[in-house]
Amino acid sequence: MLNIDNLHASINEREILKGLSLHVKPGEVHAIMGPNGAGKSTLGNILSGRDGYEVTAGNVSFEGDDLLALEPEERAAAGVFLAFQYPVEIPGVNNTYFLRSALNAQRKARGEEELDSMQFLKLVRQKLAVLHLDDRLLHRGVNEGFSGGEKKRNEIFQLAVLEPKLAILDETDSGLDIDALKSVADGVNALRSPDRAFIVITHYQRLLDYIKPDVVHVLADGRIVQSGGPELALQLEAQGYAWIKDRVAPET
Ligand code: ADP
Ligand code: MG
Ligand code: MG
């Protein structure tokens, strides 16, 4: 589904990703862990199509297409969930209305019929039930005054409604309480399916107490330096990231 090969990318001429490769098949959940500053968020941002990054080498294909050649909206329509597109606050714009517009824009781009408000409401109710969420966030402005935990719950709700093939979630490390982590985990678990893949970026192992990944990768200094099963996350929890330093010695 997703093939990243030898990706090199820079911010302001400084190389952050230094030959990163990652292969994700449908149905899989991949966790990406690693020390602060390793380039985890950079990877997520580049896959999402965020501005400010220069890809200097390598390629990324999604279902056979060159992902990096697509605009962010085209990536979304192709089925890549762009968590970053929605954290902006849009005071006064109803969250439900906003989400219906996003879904319909994607449907239209795929040549599918748009949903009217009744059809959308039905979909929303189904998804709320699956996720065991209440409808409090729906009637507020988009992310308006949302706490970190509410933003995460909303992100999971968006994910459920948009039904992407590949969801990339960056847990951005700090500020998430255990309830927020659990709702992310419950959401991911409820939305796992044989044709949907997840990339879950996290600094801490504790999220993986609730989401059992198929593959755990350690990203350090812009590269995947180790991959393994869920036990790798436990090893990191026990040993920290210090042992990684041996693996990122500069090539000569
Ligand atoms: P992680 O998510 O693994 O903690 P990031 O991808 O956020 O790491 O950052 C990787 C490196 O890129 C860090 O050294 C960080 O300081 C740098 N970086 C990230 N964003 C920017 C930016 N907008 N401008 C300059 N440097 C940046
Ligand atoms: Mg960080
Ligand atoms: Mg980060």
From TrEMBL:
A Pfam family assignment: ABC_tran
MF annotations from Gene Ontology: ATP binding; ATP hydrolysis activity
Protein name, UniProt field: Fe-S cluster assembly ATPase SufC
Domain of life: Bacteria
Domain ABC transporter: 2-246
Keyword RNA-binding: no
Family, per entry: Belongs to the ABC transporter superfamily. Ycf16 family.
Lineage: Bacteria, Pseudomonadati, Pseudomonadota, Gammaproteobacteria, Lysobacterales
Residues spanning the signal sequence: none
Annotated gene: sufC
Record key words, sorted: ATP-binding, Nucleotide-binding
